[in-house]
Design goal:
Family: Belongs to the GFRP family.
Strand order of the largest sheet: 1-3-2
Distance between the termini: 31 Å
Largest sheet: 3 strands, antiparallel
Protein name: GTP cyclohydrolase 1 feedback regulatory protein
Organism: Salvelinus namaycush (Lake trout)
Shape: globular
GO cellular component, one term: nuclear membrane
Subcellular location: Cytoplasm, Cytosol; Nucleus membrane
Low-confidence stretches: none
């Protein structure tokens, strides 16, 4: 099973949630309904969904993903 980075800004814990980069598995990106975005100044693409991270993790658990590690600030 591929790894997937899930990320959000602490002040935006209700979304949007970053769910992968331009090299992420397209079937998972489609399953999550993510949109491809590029922020001004970045030379790479990311995928985002409007749901909070908890909802994204619940969806991923239904298809066999599990949390390997996590971190936070504070």
């Amino acid at each position: 099973m591929p790894y997937l980075l899930i990320n959000t800004l602490l002040r935006l814990v209700t979304g949007p949630t970053m769910v992968g980069d331009e090299f992420s598995d397209p079937s998972i990106i489609n399953y999550l309904g993510a949109r491809k975005t590029n922020k001004l100044g970045n030379n790479f693409w990311e995928y985002h969904v409007d749901e909070p991270p908890r909802v994204v993790l619940d969806k991923l658990e239904k298809v066999g993903f599990s949390v390997v590690t996590m971190t936070g600030v504070g």
